[in-house]
Amino acid sequence: MKKDNMKKIGQKVSIDETLPHQINAPSFEGTGIKMEAPFVNEHGVVIGDSLYASENSPLENWSEDTDPAIMSGDEWVHPTNDIGWNTTENRELLESKRKPQAYPFMHPTKDVSKGTD
What we know:
The protein is 9% helix and 5% strand.
């Protein structure tokens, strides 16, 4: 399912570009990646609200006749509120997007060390 077909809901689950309810969640601050609001997928399931249970979810209505493939694909994964961001590889990806923090040793527009060496 394409992202533009998903219905965004106005609920905000982040504070200062992080997810404080997840103790090991990384911060997206300074990465250029903006935290996104939860959305409702084509099955009527809210994705990204951190509640992990939805009345319409196949997990809540599982039977022998349920095909597990129904829960595959991008429509089941939230772009910023997903447990996958807690992995080492994805944390490194976020760190690589941050600008180096030069403060307090560098002036933002002047080379104050010029001529001192």
